[in-house]
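Ligand-bound model needed. nicotinamide-adenine-dinucleotide.
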Amino acid sequence: MYKVLVSDPISDMGIQLLYDAEDVEVDKKTGLSEDELVAIIGDYDALLVRSQTRVTERIMGAGTKLKVIGRAGVGVDNIDLEAATGRGIVVINAPDGNTIATCEHTFAMMMSVARSIPQAYKKTVSGEWDRKTFVGVELRNKVLGILGMGRIGSEVAKRAKVFGMEVIGYDPFLTEERAEKIGVKLGSVNDIAAKADFITVHTPLTSETRHLIGKAQFDLMRKGIRIINCARGGIIDELALVDAVNQGIVAGAAFDVFEVEPPQADHPFLNNPNIIVTPHLGASTIEAQENVAIDVSEEVLHILRDQPFKNAVNMPPVPANVLSKLQPYFNLGEKIGVILGQIAQGAVHEIVVSYAGDLIDVDTSPLTRHIVKGIFTNRLESINIVNAMHLAKTRDVNIVVQKSSTSSSFTNLVTVTVKTKQEEKTLAGTLLAGIGERIVLIDQYPVDFPPAGHLLLVSHNDKPGIIGRVGTLLGNNDVNIATMQVGRKVIGGSAIMVLTIDKEAPKEVLSALESQSEIVNVRGLKI
Ligand SMILES: NC(=O)c1ccc[n+]([C@@H]2O[C@H](COP(=O)([O-])OP(=O)(O)OC[C@H]3O[C@@H](n4cnc5c(N)ncnc54)[C@H](O)[C@@H]3O)[C@@H](O)[C@H]2O)c1
Ligand SMILES: O=C(O)[C@H](O)COP(=O)(O)O
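Prediction:
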């Protein structure tokens, strides 16, 4: 039974999938402190959060069973991603479900700040009928600058066009073609600062976007500009904004997010008549909350059940077409790795992976992750496909990936060489239609066996009688041989024998085999 802890208010309707799953038990405990979470997290396989719970390294350290952290929303700045990756915990988010809600909230804020709706409401309900103070501005024919033209920024741009606004966008990853397609001109941050009547930000908060708009930009702005932030506190320098409002450069600002949430009672936004605020409500619609909770529940189930998933934040995304092509090879790659990890003696310093045939046209990095995971499976505790590359890197293992278009006798071939100080070991495997996984090369020896169960690899000199001696010795020790393969390059030269056996051969049996004349070494493997 998998245990899932929901530590923020997440839509019950959205996580119904988890409540309904027979192999999942859900606990909802919101508003816990870090200490309280540390005390209980050890029981859970998955943690579901929104933006309130700060998922720290300490919490993850105590979460010894934790396999996945699901963020029902976009921003993952409340989760220590590096710590999660290091511990092999998958972090997933729900990037699409709240796009429209946040875009619509941005528009609500833009219109509210254009027409002073919250201020007018406040006066009206207090009994004042003031029709002079609140003369607003129209959006039509105004210039809207959008910083961050991703999902939300693009939706805001579309709506702004319908309102008759001219849109200038800034996003280092936005191509001119795409900008043209959505009818947006491209400009730099400073261009936008100088030309815009309204600016809205829709980037994540990163070291590059922190204070993307600060004093230098406010100094460039035209008097009467209006500023909206429904992305993350800190993208706009809060103190510089207050100064710009007080100097009359900024006529109004609308903020849904703060550098520190919730803001202190004396925060300068809270008593400024030209700054309107909401308490991080961008994603707070019934629809968005259901969407993100459904998305995240589906992904959590996939991860807990070892099924493919798509929205991992701490792993590169794998497009569906690439996943469908590579997935059949994941097991093969991992088994090649597991065998190599057991036969290569010493500390690994380089792994060379070569892909040939069908595999050269796709991004094979997800498969490489499975191979690296396999190699270190019996060497490093809690390695998985999330932290495999990270752990290899922290151990100074150089990973080289090659692709070869030269035709071999196989339609696909994965060849892996593991290099240690002592030796180099190579294994190649393929997927044969209708047959399945086969190992077809060990070092320079052609072989053909399925990578499964207990194996014995016997390196020996190709001399008459050896196969019989090995068979007799194993038989005398009650080790039954299921299949046997011999690979050699030349008659009488060095050779390899691969035996699949029904149970693990005891150590004494391996030593007895190794002491036989013409046998160089014997390795027992479990796959
Ligand atoms: N207020 C809320 O409740 C709420 C709800 C949803 C999302 N958000 C915030 O909104 C942000 C945007 O969400 P999204 O779904 O559109 O994300 P997204 O990833 O689709 O878009 C972010 C865009 O920012 C761009 N970007 C990154 N660095 C940049 C930089 N230095 N300068 C300019 N652009 C840069 C990226 O290229 C990307 O196109 C999220 O990061 C999240 O923090 C807030
Ligand atoms: O990044 C997000 O998805 C938004 O900031 C929403 O956060 P919330 O789930 O805490 O409302």
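The radius of gyration is 31 Å.
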